[in-house]
Amino acid sequence: MADENQSKHGEDVSRRKFLKNSGIAVGGLAVGGVIGSMIPWDVGDKEEQKATKNVKNKSYNQALMYLSQAEFKTTEAATERIFPKDEHGPGAGDLGVAYYIDHQLAGSYGFNARDYMEPPFFHGEKVQGYQGRLKRREIFRVGLREMQNYSHQKHKKGFTEITEDQQDNILKDFQEDKVKLSTISPSGFFNLLRSMTLEGLYSDPLYGGNIDMEGWRMRNYPGDQMGYTDIIEGDFKKMEPSSLRDHM
Amino acid sequence: MAKKLPKTDVVIVGVGWGGGIIASELTKKGLNVVGLEKGEERHTEDYYMVHDELRYAIRYELMQDLSKDTLTFRRNEKIRALPMRQYGSFLLGEGLGGAGVHWNGMTFRFLPYDFEIRSRTIEKYGKNKVPADMTIQDWGITYDELEPYYDQFEKMAGISGEENPLGGKRSDKYPTGPMKQSPQLKMFKKATENLKYHPYMIPSANLSENYTNPDGIARAACQYCAFCERFGCEYGAKADPVVTVIPVANKTGKFDLRTHSWVRRVLHKDGKATGVLYTDLTTGEEIEQPADVVVLTSYVFNNVKTLLNSKIGRPYDPATGTGVIGKNYAYQVVKGAASGYFKDKQFNNFAGAGALGMVIDDFNGDNFDHTDLDFIHGGYLSLTQTGKRPIANNPIPKGSPTWGKEFKEKSLNYINRTLSIGVQGASMPYKHHYLDLDPVYKDTFGDPLVRMTFDFEDQDRSLAKFTAQKCSEILKEMGADKIDAMEELGPYDITVYQSTHNTGGVIMGADPETSAVNNYSQMWDMDNLFVVGATAFPHNGGYNPTGTVGALAYRAAEGIMKYHKNGGMLA
Fold first, then answer.
1. InterPro entries, from UniProt (chain A) (predicted)?
2. Which of A111, A186, B351, B457 could staple A228 via S-S, CB 3.0–4.6 A?
């Protein structure tokens, strides 16, 4: 497995070098469809990959159902900027948010299974809500690709290779619709990324994020308690959280 | 060709609060009732894993599957209506108990003013106080006439509360005492008393103590677990049809409940309903259920949809203001609220109950003078403690970044240091706010979706500004260091959750020309068809609607018994 990764990685570097050397870069020209094949994903080196993995406890939940390795790494980097590790506690990376997102996109939420997806499709007012044809998993994949393209266009490097400030600026441009795209709504993608990040931070650990309930602990949220009859009339109380696993 | 079943006395369409109450009252008196419910059966045992914000609150586990049926929305007739493809502004319940399962349990009575809103407003402020296109009308029933039915609903559900000092006259006190008071509720009480207002505990369907109701149904006290709205109650402490009226109906042996049954038409001949046509969702089979009396008891949109698709009643025409089905759709104005940030205090915001809170009615109905105000009615102001779950609640002061390092720091800091005062603003009907059938979009069976035409009006904007200022004043008195008031209402936005308090469309009244049902919820145009629910509200008051829905359902049940005996129009 390691050998295979390395050989792919090797290919990637030379391919990237080729693109750089030959001066092929995607400009701001908006064309129909996502430009994908020319822009490489950054897979990163072996050491870097190891560092981003949560190696404390081997969790069999931490593998991918939908995203590619490269898409996963971009997701991990972007969600970490939305909720970074700092002196207050872990960030999205340590809490497994990217795994959470991958797993959700693979399931009914990614397929918009319980949304009305019937045609015809028309552009509407913002207050009428999402009216697109694409499912969330498609929006997410296209969004990651567009973010990668935009990073190459601005910095000649992929999203995981630029500085944190540069990453923040790219996310901000998506949030504020400053990126001109013909495929998806940049802010729509950003909002999906942000809301799924919050879900991954704070949903029950059964979904793959909020690892060891550290997301809850950080904000003094006690998770799933049977009740609060004893404390409801009292002053603020810090409690050790408990999860649905404790109900099994 | 549909399979035709033997005739029953009464068939009800949708088994939530309305259907459950009708079923229990009629079967107790010996009638045979068939209950058709589109969704699945539910039990308290299903909620063992219910403390799951993602599954229930964010992914809407208990709600109607929008891939099969939704509605379309436009702000006005110039705009193309488009489907509500995902949930936002309100949530449609599905399954046994309906929206009565996922509610919070706040159980108010409307004010005497509400039932006579048009005549009282004109009497006090003159004709010009009511804008030309505002279609408020009296309900065809007074508060005093409806009072015994409120009492009946409250005793069945075991409502916990204390008397509203500014409310209508009560024949009896609440069956159980008010819920526990947390420190923030005490702060609200003190602050509003300092401001010379009249605070009282929210009447709650989350039981404050163990209770046995007049039907002999015993339920346990609420544990303040903070998972009410959008969740089912694993303790049965929150009154819902599944733990109150449905078991009573079942016990009689006269209630035939059929889940997975999607009613598509009310069948009728020569001005009388003959039964309903439904699809068994497990087999796809079309079934005809004949009945002497048909009762529509689903949520607002489905009641209207079923009538219009069955071609019953006169569809409302906004151009002329004539017709009644779809008329006077109204909502709730909840945005004129305020949040306060407390530097040096922390609260147990994670704990609570759906109906735990304290409220004032000093700015509700006509409890205050409107002479110099450019709106009528008002709403209650409240501090509630329903449980701030972590995905949905990340309060930060206005203008703060919504992601990144600063967002993290602020949201972690403020989560237990923020208190909000909310408002339940009344919603007035307008000539151009209505429900009809969409010409383009269809449900899973090819039936047209309901189309909603609705927006906020100047009345709503003025009301929101007014209530937001009052909310801010209370927070200031409570000692908040920083206050954000939400004064600007903006256009109605179907993507942002506001309230599942949709009303109107099959409104009640004293005049068949301007209303669809009489005060027994009996259709003027078809005397053996009753339409029960918030569809009957000619406008929406400044309260949560379930108490009034329950009272009207008890009155409808009485009317159906009368009709079964003697026939004819009841009012």
1. Gluconate_2DH_su3 (IPR027056), TAT_signal (IPR006311), TAT_signal_bac_arc (IPR019546)
2. B351
Nearest-by-CA chain B residue for A131: B85
Report the amino acid identity of residue B123: E
Shortest Cα–Cα distance, B136 to chain A (Å)? 26
According to DSSP, residue A178 is labeled: -
Q: Is B33 helix (H, G, I), strand (E, B) or coil?
A: strand
Q: Are B234 and B50 in contact (CB under 8 A)?
A: yes
Q: Residue B6 has what DSSP assignment?
A: P
Active-site residue, from B433, B501, B539, B564: B501
Residues 6 or more apart in contact with residue B80 via CB below 8 angstroms: A122, A124, B74
Token pair 């409890």 is found at B367
Smallest CA–CA distance, residue A173 to chain B, in Å, is: 13
Report the amino acid identity of residue B162.
Answer: E
CB contact under 8 A, A116 and B73: no
Backbone φ and ψ for B145, nearest 5 degrees, come out as: -70, -30
In B131-150, which positions are buried (b, 16+ CB within 10 angstroms) versus exposed (e)?
beebbbbbbbbebeebbebb
pLDDT at B343: 94
A97-106 helix and A186-202 helix, angle to the nearest 10 degrees: 110
- Say if B406 is an interface residue toward chain A (CB within 8 Å): no
Inter-chain touch B224–A232, beta carbons under 8 Å: yes
Domains by residue range for chain B, with CATH: 3-566 (3.50.50.60)
The reply to whether residue B409 touches residue A194, judged by beta carbons under 8 angstroms, is no
Query: ipTM score of the complex?
Result: 0.96
Strands B255-258 and B33-36: parallel
Q: Which residue has the tokens 């004539």?
A: B322
In which region does residue B36 sit, left (phi positive, over 0), alpha (psi from -120 to 50) or beta (all else)?
beta
Across B65-70, average pLDDT: 98
Q: Do B225 and A227 touch (CB under 8 A)?
A: yes
Peptide bond preceding B397: is omega within 30 degrees of 0, i.e. cis?
A: no
With CA atoms as reference, the chain B residue closest to A167 would be B404
Please name the member of A130, A194, A244 whose beta carbon is closest to the beta carbon of B49: A244
Q: Which of B105, B102, B98 is nearest to B41 (CA)?
A: B98
| Runs of H (alpha helix) within chain A | 2-22, 46-52, 69-82, 97-106, 136-155, 164-175, 186-202, 214-218
How far, in whole angstroms, is CA B548 from its chain's centroid?
A: 9
Rounded to whole angstroms, how far apart are CA atoms B96 and B257?
9
Instruction: Using the predicted structure, report yes or no on whether residue A18 has a pLDDT greater than 70.
Output: no
Q: Is A228 within 8 Å of B442 when comparing Cβ atoms?
A: no
Q: DSSP label at A86?
A: B
Which 3-state string (H, E, C) describes B327-341? EEEECCECCCCEEEE
User: pLDDT tens, A150-173?
Assistant: 999 999 999 999 999 999 999 999
Closest residue of B to A226, CA-based? B225
Angle CA(B304)–CA(B308)–CA(B313) in degrees, nearest 5? Answer: 95
- CB A137 within 8 Å of CB A111: yes
Number of A to B CB contacts under 8 A, please give it.
Answer: 170
Contact A231 B348 (CB under 8 A): yes
Q: Which residues 212-271 of chain B have a CB within 8 Å of chain A?
A: 222-226
Distance in angstroms (rounded) separating the CA atoms of residues B468 and A40: 52
Q: What's B58's DSSP letter?
A: I
Q: Could you read off the pLDDT of A164-218 as tens digits, one per residue? A: 999 999 999 999 999 999 999 999 999 999 999 999 999 999 999 999 999 999 9
Q: Which residue has the tokens 């936002």?
A: B88
Q: How many CA atoms lie within 13 A of B188 on its CB side?
A: 29
* B453 pLDDT above the threshold of 50: yes
**CB–CB of A147/B101 below 8 Å?**
no
Contact A81 B403 (CB under 8 A): yes
Residues from chain A that touch B39, judged by Cβ atoms under 8 A, are: none
